[in-house]
Write a structure and sequence with these properties.
Length: about 140
């Protein structure tokens, strides 16, 4: 039985809250678009899109995850699900986190440090110091 079948049979869910901020966590980023995609487990087939509120956080997002019982004994099955999270805002560079773990019955917090665009930049450009490797380039693709 694969992970997707196992989760569907047990109807287990975990939660993910994304917190977007800038200025060394001093300022929340309101109105950022948060997109959650399947991280390779096949647990969700469509993107989940939410907005951050005044606090810079999303409401908790319910996501399928393996049962908490899976973490109680040794097993070859990973006891958590993985998701990819992208955060965008017109005034900040895009952010992408891959392999974000979500455990059943637990609310995970994904902090996101948003880097402001300068008046000469657009969201299509990379900040100084980023090299042209494929993985880093993926951070800025939608």
């Amino acid at each position: 039985m694969n992970l997707s079948d196992k989760v569907q049979n047990e109807a287990s869910f975990g939660f993910l809250t994304v917190r977007a901020y800038t200025a060394g966590e001093a300022l929340p980023v309101e109105g950022a678009t948060v997109t959650v995609r399947d991280g390779g487990d096949g647990l969700i087939t469509e993107e989940i899109v939410r907005q951050t509120g005044r606090s810079g956080q999303t409401e908790p997002i319910a996501l399928p995850a393996p049962s908490a019982m899976d973490s109680q004994s040794p097993s070859l099955t990973r006891p958590y699900a993985i998701y990819d999270v992208t955060v965008t805002h017109p005034r900040f560079y895009p952010f992408r986190a891959t392999g974000v773990p979500v455990f059943a019955g637990i609310t995970s917090l994904q902090p996101v440090n948003m880097i402001p665009l300068t008046r000469f930049d657009s969201a299509d450009r990379k900040p100084e110091g980023i090299t042209d490797t494929q993985n880093e380039q993926d951070l800025f693709d939608d």
